[in-house]
Amino acid sequence: MKLSVIVPVYNVEKFLPRCLDSLLRQGMEVGEWEVICVNDGSPDNSAAILAEYEKKYPDIFKVITQENQGLGGARNTGTAMAQGEYVTYLDSDDYLIDNAYSYLLDVFCKDKPEVLCYDYIKIYTNGLILYDPEATPQGEVTFEGDGTEAFNRWPLYNVWTKFYKRSFIELHHIESQIVASQDELFNFDVFRHHPFTRIVTCNVVRYELGNEGSIQRTTDKKKVIQYSEDMFSNIDYICAYIDSGEKEMLPAAMRVINNFLNVYHHKLSLAFIPFGKWLTFRQKMRKLPPYQPLEQRNGKSAYRLALCKKWAGKSYLFYMLFTFIRKVVFYQFLRPILFMKK
Question: Fold for domain 3-208?
Fold first, then answer.
C-alpha cells in the first residue's frame, strides 16, 4: 500500500463532505491507499456522515471512533493504524484539488524521499463551494537533501502539507503532542533526525479560513486561554532542546519559539480574556529566556511586537481596545469581504 491519509474529525459536519469527496478524486486505485477517519468524539452529525462514506466506499474509508483526545491524539490513533508506505494528514475542514496525491506519489516519490513537502492556498468559502475547481497539480523541485538543513532554513511547520515515510516515523518514535500547535513540535522532531527531504512547488491543499469552530480560528475565551497556556508549554519543550546543548537545530529552535510567541499574541487578541489571566500571561512572558527576541524579526512580526507586546502586553485597556478592533471589526466584518471566494 502506497499511502495512508489520516483525517481527524471533530465538529465539522458542514465541511466534512467536501473534504471526503475531494479524497475520492485523488486518482488512486483501490488497494493503493486508505483513508483513516478518526471521529474524536464529535458532538455533531459528523459520525453519521463518516458512517455513510464508510458503507459506500469500504475499500477506501476506515472509521475509528474514540473519546475526545484533541487533534494530536486523533492523529496518533490514525497513525498507529496506518498500513501505507507513506503517511499524510488532512484536516477535515480543508480539501484537496483533484488528483493531487496520485501526482505527488508518481512524480516526486519514485526514489522514496523520507519527507515530501508540498504547499497550500488559503481560502475563505465558509465550506460552501470549491475554490478554483479546475486546478490541476503541477510543480517542480526546489530543494532536496538533508531535512535538518531545510528546517533550519524554512518554516516547514504544517503536517498536512507533507508525506512522511511511515518506517521513518516508527523508527524514531515520533508522535503528535497533545497540545495546540502540535505541528511545529512534530516536525521539529522529524527534521532533527536528518530525513532525506524533497520540497516541491505544488499548491494542492485548500486551507479553509472560514471555520470559526477550528482551534486555530476560534475566538472562544476558554479555548483561547487554553491555547495560550499550550504555547508556553510548547516553548518549554523547545527550550529544553536548546538547554541540552545540541546545536544542529538551533536556528530552527529559535525560530519556532518566535513562531509560538507570534501565535500567542495572535490568539490573545481574538478573545476578551479577564484581567487576572492577562496579568498571569504577562508575567510568564517576562520570565521567558531571551533566546531570540522578537525585535530581531521584521514585517508582520514587528507589527505584532509593537501592538501586542509593547502596548497590549503592558496596558490591559489597550489590550481590550486592540482585541475589539481585531475580533469585531476585522474578523466579523472585514475578513469575509476581503477573503470570501466566489
Answer: Spore Coat Polysaccharide Biosynthesis Protein SpsA; Chain A (3.90.550)
